[in-house]
Amino acid sequence: MKIKLKYKVDKIWFAYFVIKFFYMLFALFVYSKLTTLGDTYRYLRGDEAFGPGLWRDSTALMDTFGYSFSLLLGPVLANIPFLVLSCIGVYYPVNRLNLTKNQLIVLLALLSVPSFGVWTSIISKEAFGVFYLGIILGFFIDYIKRKPNKRHFLVIFCVYLCALFKPQYLIGIAALFTFVFISRKFSLRGFGKTVILALFFVFSFLALYIFRNEINELSFIIPMHFSLDAGSTRENTIWVNDFDVFRNAPYGMFIAFFGPTLSEALSKPTHLLVFIESALIVGVFLCALLKLLLISFNTGRLNVFFVGVFLTATLWILFVHYPFGALNPGSAIRYRENFYAFLVILFYFCYIEVKRNYFYYRLEKYRYRYLSEKKAMDY
Q1: What percent of the chain has pLDDT over 70?
Q2: Helix 249-258 and helix 269-299: axis angle, to 10°?
Q3: Which of 108, 155, 162, 375 gives the lowest tally of CB atoms within 10 Å of its CB?
Q4: Residue 49: left (phi > 0), alpha (psi -120 to 50), or beta?
Q5: Please, what's the b/e burial string for 82-113 (b: 16 or more CB within 10 A of its CB; e: otherwise)?
Q6: Residue 7 contacts by C-beta under 8 Å, 6 or more apart in sequence?
Q7: Per-residue pLDDT tens digits for 271-309
Q8: Could you tell me the sign of the dihedral formed by the alpha carbons of 190, 193, 195, 200, in that order?
């Protein structure tokens, strides 16, 4: 008796995994010759592996995993478990969007840009970041779409990982959860959601005002962790006077996400490639945003809910990220990869939902017009 087992492999997702695998090889054998791969080789050595603070220290945890996989698989294949983790962090939320084939290809193309591919396909905290933020985002998408999600332990574990690796991101996640929960709990309509979104800005600015002195003091400590001897580190001209951390936040948030400036891009080939990549990413975002604005103009309606969903998380994440990326374009791009997939998938989710609602609105409008004309002809 023969038992035949059939496995259906999605060609698009398989291709995405293969691309990530090639990025892993490129990072280890090519990119590492041009620049350092962060702490990847330190994790392989396991300097603090199996230490007493294993579950309280993200570096010790990375040392333990990196060293263990290095012993089991060797220094090259030890990167594959982290590559798989980042793929899961992308697949989990994207699989909940119900995308068409072309939409999936477009989204995965945005998640295949070189910087993201390199830093999330090797042993890195960024690979972990894609994983736990992806699981958390998948939970939010299910919650927004009113679909039951019984993987509560997995979500709680990922919140723990976020608190361990990047606790500052929890501010944006908490803001997103609060906005969505209140909107859903009280079945708020457009005006109610607008009020909640306005309150988000009020309470955000209030929180920044209350902790203004502490944040100001931290802004003067951060430059001490960036050495001017490092090739890409900029001179600190952004936090010179008291409360510059707030005054320069808009520019700082942008440059910490974008990476190198034009002058830096023209001075170094690797910076030029990153500059082009970031320009492409921002360009795609702006084009999609323009389409959403045209939809709002054509319908005379603004979908406040999805505006709030995107802004509440994005603004806080960019704000807490900017002190770590404003002084060094290399650090900016590397740390960006933690939340890059989260923001891209969240934006794409909001984008397609608004478009679906728009087409539904047009369909209902034409249906109403057809019924009205048919009723008039019957008379």
Answers
A1: 91
A2: 120
A3: 375
A4: beta
A5: bbebbbebbbbbbebbebeeeebeebbebbeb
A6: none
A7: 999 999 999 999 999 999 998 888 888 877 888 999 999
A8: negative
